[in-house]
Amino acid sequence: MRNRIIIPLIITLLAVPAGFAYVHWSKGGTGTGLYSRYWSPDPVQGYWDPANFYQSPDSVQGIFAGEQCVQCHEGITPGIVNDWRASRHAQSEETVYCNDCHGNDHQQLRLPTPDVCGNCHAKQHDEFRDEARYGFPSHVLAMERAVDAKHFVDKPKAEVQSCVQCHSVATKCDSCHSRHRFDAAEARRPEACITCHSGPPHPDDETYFASAHGKLYLAEGNNWDWSKPLTKGNYKAPTCAYCHMDNGRHQVAEKSLWKFGLREINPHTSKNQVLRKKWIKLCSDCHEEEKARQWLTELDQERKQAWQKLYMAEAILKDLRSDRLLQPAAGERPPYPMDWLDSLWPRERIGFFEGQASVFYNVSAIERDYFEMWYFDNLGAYKSAAHGNPAGVEAGHRKMVASLDRIETQANELRKLSQAEKKAEIRIKPSGDLWMKGAYTDYNREHN
């Protein structure tokens, strides 16, 4: 009895520090994140993650005052200087010069990070950093989530650079406040957000612009006074920032209720009841409270209907997996380089909690169909419901039904084929390395 307690305790005491040591070791490579030893940065990474990768040019030597920077760059980069002259940095009582943000030693220049901006904008910086406690989704954790994902290393570097271009919102403030004006008025407009929040994985742009709010913005927004703060009465219709950064609060995830629509949650937990009250209070700036409650209830109902469809598709795929009808099988596909468990125990991952999000490529056709149903059709419906676009909700659910029908049809065909093969006593031979080769797979293997 004593050994049953002591042995597991010893194993635990050894495993915990070993785990910490491994994580520390894994972050000691040329890259960043958990897989830093398996990738190296391209030069452009210095702009997406300047604290870790930016290297100052060595074309000029010397230490310069701010006025000297301006004098030189008026000839070299006049557009930058003109933007700076139009900024509050240049027009404040105490001028904020180039060297205040970039340093004055030209061989040790830096690209400003949130910490640099936080030296003056402490309130906004603290709010931004504090967003980490809300978990996913979160701007402040965006870069960490990108480089800690296995597919960041698995996929060709040229592809994942497009990921970090937006995930760099965690590592530099000019993702929203474009340099060198850093204009709050610009950041209040929806275009500041849809630079990244657009396209099939996050169709915030098309769903917002199709809503009553978005249509009013498109019709009249150019005439609004964007210098006004994000408070009640200042704008005829809300934009992204008005709702998600009310009163200029730099915590976009503060009221995140449905967690991006990618996994099912209980919208009526005690925590989420608090969030619902915050949404109702915000919407009550323009609408009656009861109407706001009704919209939240409609969103709950939309999510319930969506997950019923998604779980039906998941059940079909899991049944096919149980009967070994997913082809090519996991063991016959090119292994994910960073997933050692996948090479030891190949298994088709189905659904959010099995890690489906990390295996959206290198899968069978029917699995990819489900991924697109979950990640594209589902998100189109969710974002439409959240942004007040009923036509988008209907279109999203129509696409989900079509995807579900297609998955059911493919599943039936796979079962009929399997039955015919059994009846004819045809034994399917392993495909060997048939699926291990191909232009994409070979390039990935050789270049990443």
Descriptive notes:
- With 448 residues, the chain is mainly alpha-helical.
- It has a domain of 158 residues.
- 54% of the residues lie in helices and 0% in strands.
- The chain has 23 helices and no strands.
- α18 packs across α19.
- The longest helix is centred in the C-terminal third of the chain and has 34 residues.
Q: Which keywords apply here?
A:
448 residues; mainly alpha; 23 helices; globular
Number of strands: 0
Give the low-pLDDT segments: none
Classification by helices and strands: mainly alpha
Distance between the termini: 51 Å
Cα-atom radius of gyration: 26 Å
Q: Encode the helix/strand succession as letters.
A: HHHHHHHHHHHHHHHHHHHHHHH
Q: In terms of quaternary structure, what is this?
A: single chain
Instruction: Give a short account of the largest sheet.
Output: none
- Hey, roughly how much beta strand do the residues contain? under 5%
- DSSP helix fraction: 40-55%
Mean pLDDT: 89
Question: Which helices and strands occur, and which strands form pairs?
Answer:
Elements: H1 2-26, H2 45-48, H3 50-53, H4 66-76, H5 78-85, H6 88-91, H7 98-102, H8 114-118, H9 122-130, H10 142-147, H11 150-154, H12 157-167, H13 184-187, H14 191-194, H15 204-209, H16 212-220, H17 240-244, H18 270-283, H19 289-322, H20 340-344, H21 365-387, H22 390-423, H23 439-447
In short:
This protein has helices spanning 2-26, 45-48, 50-53, 66-76, 78-85, 88-91, 98-102, 114-118, 122-130, 142-147, 150-154, 157-167, 184-187, 191-194, 204-209, 212-220, 240-244, 270-283, 289-322, 340-344, 365-387, 390-423, 439-447. By secondary structure, it is mainly alpha-helical.
